[in-house]
Design goal:
The chain is of the alpha/beta class. It folds into two domains: about 45 residues; about 200 residues, Rossmann fold (3-Layer(aba) Sandwich), CATH 3.40.50.150. Helix content is about 35%, strand content about 15%. It contains eleven helices and seven strands. It has a seven-stranded mixed beta sheet, with helices on both faces. Helix 9 packs parallel to helix 10. The longest helix is centred in the N-terminal third of the chain and has 24 residues. About 25% of the residues are buried.
Length: about 300
């Protein structure tokens, strides 16, 4: 064993310490921690100092910078599609409950002045969570599964509020098997979906949604799964993660894939881009990407532009 990376047991005496130069070769952070450890007396105080003054602040900063917030991507997606196409598009939310997220989606279109180009659809039974006997709908890590009637919404109050404040919306009341009907699907020909927000919690419900939508989703459309990380740690065996796994293993066709968008989802696994090959419908880019002025001409050898 290398003496620089261990403590040597002497047969007739105490454990010998590694040579001092061992720490000189280590990263600056480790050398700093070693110095602090020598200044603080006792293992208890050393441990308390590390947990409260080093570990906790670092975790706080990581969470502040990288923890995903469910509305982080909304404005970015709207801006992107507003620039990619001069036409109209839609936002689809599945799982309305009392309309908390629906109102925020509507206001986002107003703030970005896209009300005349977008329709925001929301779908819910407004009767709360239905009962489910599908094992893929259940929480098997903490026994915290949803119960029948949970997340019940008030359709009349929500519709009344929206009718007084917005015009670019549609509320679809009923179970997805009936509310995602042919008339709605045909409307996506004129308003292709840019964002599909799936917050219906059950694998079985999410499967119904994508089974009905899959032939109407353009390439590049964003699909957001609200419960992806929360259900069984994102296991591919249950929940929305199960549906992503099935799609990406060819069960909905070998030509379809959900591609993780790490820029939009940060450290989470909630956001995907829809891709279908042979070429599926795309939202046209108004710019001519083949224009000759887009060629980058050489200037210098440095990494600067």
């Amino acid at each position: 064993m290398n003496a620089h990376h261990s403590r040597l047991a002497h047969p007739s005496g105490p454990v010998a310490k590694a040579p001092a130069e061992d720490y000189i070769r280590r990263p600056g952070k480790i050398r700093l921690l070693h110095t602090l450890g020598r200044l603080i007396p006792g293992d208890y105080l050393k441990t308390a100092f590390y947990l409260n003054c080093i570990d906790a602040p670092r975790r706080f900063l990581r969470d502040a910078l990288f923890a995903f917030y469910r509305y982080d991507h909304v404005y970015a997606v709207l801006r992107e599609f507003a620039q990619r196409t001069s036409g109209r598009f839609s936002l689809l939310e599945f799982g309305t409950s009392d309309g908390y997220s629906f109102i925020k989606l509507l206001y986002a279109t107003r703030y970005l002045r896209l009300e005349n180009r977008t329709v925001v659809h929301t779908f819910d039974s407004f009767e709360g969570m239905p009962a489910s006997a599908d094992v893929r709908d259940k929480d098997w890590s903490g026994d915290d599964s949803w119960v029948e009637g949970q997340f019940r919404g008030n359709y009349e109050a929500l519709n009344d509020y929206c009718s007084r404040h917005y015009s670019n919306y549609a509320i679809h009341r009923g179970y997805f098997e009936k509310s995602v009907d042919e008339a709605f699907l045909q409307s996506l020909d004129s308003y292709p979906p840019a964002l599909i927000w799936i917050d219906c919690d059950y694998y079985s419900s999410a499967r119904t949604i994508l089974t009905r939508l899959i032939d109407r989703i353009p390439n590049g459309a964003v699909i957001y799964f609200d419960e992806f990380d929360n259900m069984n740690y994102g296991s591919r065996l249950t929940g929305e993660a199960r549906l992503v796994h099935e799609i990406n293993t060819g069960q909905y066709g070998e030509d379809i894939e959900l591609v993780p968008d790490l820029r939009l989802s940060l450290y989470s696994r909630r956001i995907y881009r829809f891709m279908r090959i042979p070429p599926n419908r795309v939202l046209a880019n108004p710019e001519d990407v083949s224009a000759p002025e887009q060629v980058r001409h050489w200037s210098n050898g440095s990494p600067l532009p």
